[in-house]
Amino acid sequence: MNAQETESKRRQKTESLAEVCSVRIDKTLFGVPISHILEIVGAARPQPVPLAPAYVGGLVHYRGDVLTTVSMRQLLGLPPKDGKQDILVLESAGGCFGLLVDSVGEVITVSGTDYEPNPSILDERRRALLAGAYKLKSGLLVMLDPDRLDPMRLGSIQAA
Amino acid sequence: MDDLTRDFLIESQEGLDRMERCLTELEERPHDTELLAEIFRAVHTIKGTTGFLGFKRLEKLAHAGENLLGLLRDGTLSADSAVITALLQLLDGLRAILKTIEGSGNEGDSDNESLIARLEELRASAVTPPNVSQPRATRSRSATPKTTARSSRTKCESASESATATVAATASVAPLSAPATAVASVALAPTASAVATQRVAVTSPDAADASKPRLPAVGAAESTLRVDVALLNRMMNLVGELVLTRNQVLQATAADPNMTMLSRRLDMVTADLRESVMKARMQPVSNIFSKMPRIVRDLSQSLSRRVSLHMEGQETELDKSLLEAIKDPLTHAVRNALDHGIEPPAVRQTAGKDPEGRLALRAVQEGSHVVIEVSDDGAGIDVDRVRNKAIERGLITAERAAQLAERELLQLIFLPGFSTAERITNVSGRGVGMDVVRTNVEKIGGKVEIDSRAGKGTTLRLRIPLTLAIIPALIVRSLDQSFALPQAALSELVHIPPEQAAQAIEWIENAPLYRLRGRLLPLVFLDGLLTPGRNCRLSAGRDNFIAVLDADGRRFGLVVDSLADPEEIVVKPLSAVLKDIGLYSGATVLGNADLALILDPGSIALKAGVTMTNKEELLSEITEESAASASRLEYLVVAVSGRQAAVPLADVLRIEQLPIARIEYIGYRPVLNFDGQLLPIEDTGGMLAASAEQPDAPIIIVVCRDGNRHVGIAVSEVLDVAAGGDLFECGSGQPTDGVTLLKNRVTGIVNLGGVQPLPAQVPNDVGTEDWKEVAEAMA
After folding, report:
1. Fewer beta carbons under 10 A from the terminal one: N or C of chain A?
2. Which of residues B743 and A36 earns the better pLDDT score?
3. CB A150 within 8 A of CB A97
């Protein structure tokens, strides 16, 4: 069992209820802890950056700053989506960045008892991106950890 | 780190900065009690505060210093050079500990025993017979080089670490006359006003300083405020945002008459706000000038020179980030002036000069630039030595050197790898001198000029733009995206019409080249650079453009799809992951709310493998530059039916090439119709009449500004841009008017004012549209 999983277990014990913003990418429902979300920018069209790493979804203008976005579709190996996408503005240790998702859904309150860490059959690449899942009645809510999606960190993972 | 400690660090650093200034002054006026009191206060405050913050090492050092200063203040000891050197070491010691505290939160464990012992020794000497002080003075002098190295390091560090800017309302100049603040009361004749505007006077909680009753610092403290730079940057960002929102509001409400007044007001308020916030980021150059007396003192001691430093225009303001950026080049220039410029006293005396050299720093604002001058009255630059050295280093051939004028030879010192120092000193002479100054200044969009007369002295002029946050840029398009090209690197634009696309570019294997006025210019396709593997050709179906760029001596043409307007852009930083790509220096939001990446011409040149232009060419560019810097006017050289003529470059707006049939006539007057705007054409060469039979023949029109009207000059060919040389009337020596020396030919300057104005304001208020009809009818 790796360190991340033990950490997840610890978290599961200490906090029983958590609020998670649900986002949809392709057919999967993902969740991002709302404590990490600064703002949701709807229907944005990021400006592509030539020669940028593939996971960079482009630049958006956000409150006077230029924000680098990470394309969740690209990270998951999905084909790019045409048209506008929603952006979660996330705060991580390295600063702010945007996460490009297909659409943002409602905020769901989840219970720690429903939490399961990443399954062992998940491939290496996805295991680095995902942070376990909550079992909801309607299906699984796959958790995303904003710190692991930070563009700088992704850069070092891909380089490695 | 808690707030208390942070406040303590900021206050102490300010106190030490003041102390440094006072110490150099003290050397000239060793009995000035005001100065001594100020220095004592700085050290005492540190000692007092550090006691309850628990920094024992700092307290011990400050205590030793205070003891010595106490004697100085009482007049028991006089401030000779040895004492001042020791006090400067004390200053460096205190700074080093403060730095450690800032970095790690504790004061470290290296001890200052030797320094404390030295201070104690000096204190003890105050009561012992004076004959002991002689050997001591020499000893302290031998210690100076070490201090120099350390102090310069400390300086760089303290600059980068001071994260808070002190913002001062201009109002703080007023309370200067009142004996209100500790700072203002110090008799720093040239610096006093600058100091007061630049810093909030922090009068220390200094009850123990009984010799001088503490005065309440009301005036300055109430009118100024310390603000975090990060907050200012944020405000700048938000103002930028507001400007964009305003632009959109203005567009959206343009049609609604009810909104006109409101949106106009919004427009004005936004513009005002933007200006105020930019002003808040400005700091007086005295912030860096004030470091110079110490540097000059240390250097003149270690080089045994005698130098007096004069500073002027310290209140001139510059953006904080730029101020930081020019600190190193300026320090370098000052070092050069002392090491290479000002001669040792004995040499000066033999040359009939005052043994004390004069070094002057002058800052002055000229339009949107600040000019900083470093001038010395030293030996000047020996042009012959420069020539020989350049030949010896292989920077130039002997034949070429023989052709160069003195002024052009001087520019050689800016070439990388050039140094005339006979031997390498720890001050300068490693051959990384002037080119580093030039590179650093050019990096922030500035320029360096040099002027020197053998035996008389040297003047180095740094031209710095007022602000970096907003730069003029040309918006270009490629790959259906907008990119911003900084105007500073842009030297000219070449338009390639569709019909010439096929043959305009020549290839050597896979290297595209363009023949620009007879010289081959390496080309970089922007779309090809940004999408590797793309097949790059000029497309025959539309216009193509080449932006000729000059990035630190690398000259190349960037091929783009189209050009948009030049814009003043607000530079926004990119995240580290995008900065690592290396091609972009930032991003910006355009007036139409689109994002554009800002291209970095230097990196593009590197990435595309464009190397330094060969020396000869670089030199000819330098020559051009130097000619321009000599405040000689630059001219566009044109051929008008076989004759060479000149148009002042500053007046040229653009050059149009069009079929001769586009020219229409009002009576006998040729005019050109641009979407209803009539441009009078001056046809001195009679070319229009000469080629009237071929309506499709192209004609070149140079569109110029004359006062507030525009006029067109018909020419047969545009030859070059060159600087004009002065011509004088034989005998009288009067400078001539209307002619100039261009490319060694006497050339007439086209008199734009002589172009007859178009008939203005006709009866019945006929608009320009009607004029077109009239023109056609008459033609």
Report:
1. C
2. A36
3. yes
Chain A residues touching B595 at Cβ < 8 A? 47, 59-61, 66
Q: Is B461 touching A (CB cutoff 8 A)?
A: no
Mean pLDDT lowest for which of B117-131, B183-197, B587-601? B183-197
- DSSP track, B603-661: HHHHHTT--PPPHHHHHHHHHHHHHHHTTPPEEEEEEETTEEEEEEGGGEEEEEEEEGG
Question: Helix, strand, coil proportions of chain A in percent (round to 5)?
Answer: 25, 45, 30
Task: Single out the residue of B112, B152, B118 nearest to residue B137, CA to CA.
Answer: B118
- Classified as helix, coil or strand, A71 is strand
Please indicate whether, in this complex, the C-beta atoms of B581 and A47 are within 8 angstroms of each other. no
Flag if A49 and B594 touch (Cβ within 8 Å): no
Residue of A nearest to B573 (CA): A66
- Distance between CA atoms of B722 and B623, rounded to whole angstroms? 10
Residue B51 contacts residue B62 (beta carbons within 8 Å): no
pLDDT tens digit string along B343-375?
A: 888 888 888 888 888 899 999 887 667 889 998
What is the nearest CA distance from B516 to chain A, expressed in angstroms?
29
Give residue B151's pLDDT.
42
Tokens matching residue B530: 């940004």
For tokens 């950026």, what's the residue?
B325
* 3-state SS class at B519: strand
B231 contacts chain A (CB < 8 A): no
Cβ atoms within 10 A of the Cβ of B459, count? Answer: 19
Among B572, B593, B594, the residue with its CB nearest the CB of A65 is B572
User: Of all residues in chain B, what percent are helix, strand and coil, respectively (each to 5)?
Assistant: 45, 25, 30
Compute the distance between CA of residue A32 and CA of residue B458 in angstroms, rounded to an integer. Answer: 64
pLDDT of residue B763: 44
From A47's Cα to the closest Cα of chain B, the distance in A is 7
Residue of chain B minimizing CA distance to A153: B577
Q: What is the pTM of this model?
A: 0.53
Decide if pLDDT at B220 tops 60.
no
Q: A38: which 2 tokens?
A: 């600064």
Quote the CA–CA distance of B732 and B728 in Å, as a whole number. 8
- For B316, left (φ over 0), alpha (ψ -120 to 50), or beta? beta
**For residue A104, what are the contacts with CB-CB under 8 A and spacing of at least 6?**
A21, A22, A23, A24, A40, A42, A86, A88
Strand boundaries in B348-456, DSSP class E:
357-366, 369-376, 447-453
pLDDT value, residue B293: 86
Residue that the structure tokens 């990470």 belong to: A70
Pick left, alpha or beta for residue B14 (phi over 0 → left; psi -120 to 50 → alpha; otherwise beta): alpha
CA separation for the pair B342, B357 (Å, rounded): 6
Structure tokens at B489: 């690197």
Q: Do B595 and A61 touch (CB under 8 A)?
A: yes
Q: Which residues of A touch B530 (CB under 8 A)?
A: 50-51
Q: Considering only CA atoms, which of A8, A32, A12, A29 is closest in space to residue A92?
A: A32
Instruction: Looking at the complex, report in whole angstroms how far the Cα of residue A83 sits from the nearest Cα belonging to chain B.
Output: 16
Chain A CB contacts of B572 under 8 Å are 64-66
Q: How far apart are CA B157 and CA B486, in angstroms?
A: 30
Q: What average pLDDT score do residues B440-450 get?
A: 79
pLDDT tens digits for range B378-406: 888 878 888 887 787 777 777 777 777 77
Is B608 an interface residue toward A (CB < 8 Å)?
A: no
Two tokens at B646? 């000149």
Give the helix/strand (H/E) hosting B52. Answer: helix B33-53
- From chain A, the residues in CB contact with B594 under 8 A are 47
Does residue B706 contact residue B677 with C-beta atoms inside 8 Å? no
Which residue does chain B place closest to A155, by CA atoms?
B577
Q: Name which of A49, A63, A155 is nearest B597 (Cβ-Cβ).
A: A49
ipTM for the predicted complex comes to: 0.82
